[in-house]
Write a structure and sequence with these properties.
This protein is mainly α. It has one domain (6-223): Orthogonal Bundle (Endonuclease III, domain 1). The chain is built from twelve helices and no strands. Helices cover 60% and strands 0% of the residues. Helix 2 crosses helix 3.
């Protein structure tokens, strides 16, 4: 197992960032000069949906609903029409409408208080982390099942089923993304999870993290 020491974490960070520089994916929501609205909408749509799927309809969605006001004035059925490429579109449409109405009520200003932020429609832990990272420039992890998979395979598994409440995984994720390039490091981990450290059939033979990967070591032990 690759212990979560400062040295191992630092090595993990630098290798991932170097890999990301040449292998990272390019998506419209990763471009600079996005509005807070465009950033939040992207993160909402990315929940439980592959980035490649979102990239196909995200530009059209933003073009049709360019800001919180446009989204707040839209009929739920109209929002549903643009969200049909993804699952749970009926549920997402209603929650997006609620979030838009809440943002208009707040004069389009997000709260800085963490509890208040998480209490808003469609927020919760992951979205609040995304706001902290992408809008407030704080080193917060975009911790989902994909990031969790990479961290657990490389360092060690969590004990609780829900990643939101597992103290080991939460602490580890924050420790890993505490970096001057936290945003890029988050993206690097998510891209690595999609390209190499996949849920099924991970590409372990050519993985640059293989030497210290706990998952690979456990597989080798089982084969002995």
């Amino acid at each position: 197992m690759a212990a979560a020491t400062t040295k191992n974490i630092s090595e993990f960070q630098e290798k991932l960032l170097a890999w990301f520089a040449t292998n990272g994916r390019h998506f419209p929501w990763r471009e600079r000069r996005l509005t807070p609205y465009q950033t939040i909408i992207a993160e909402v749509l990315l929940q439980r949906t592959k980035a490649e799927t979102v990239s196909k309809f995200y530009p059209k969605f933003i073009q049709h609903f360019p800001n919180w006001l446009a989204l707040s004035l839209a009929n739920v059925s109209d929002i549903e029409h643009y969200l049909k490429p993804v699952g749970l579109y009926a549920q997402r449409s209603k929650r997006l409408k609620s979030l838009a109405l809440e943002m208009i009520k707040r004069n389009e200003v997000l709260p800085t208080d963490r509890r208040e932020l998480e209490s808003m429609p469609f927020m919760g832990q992951y979205m609040a982390n995304a706001v902290e990272l992408l809008l407030y420039d704080k080193p917060f992890p975009l911790l989902d099942v994909n990031m969790s998979r990479v961290l657990e395979r490389y360092i060690g598994e969590r004990t609780m089923a829900d990643i939101r409440y597992d103290p080991y995984l939460q602490k580890l994720a924050f420790k890993v993304v505490k970096h001057n390039h936290s945003k890029e490091l988050n993206w690097a981990i998510l891209d690595f999870a999609a390209i190499t450290c996949k849920a099924r059939n991970p590409i372990c033979k050519t993985c640059f993290l293989a030497r210290k990967c706990a998952f690979i070591k456990s597989v080798r032990r089982r084969l002995l």
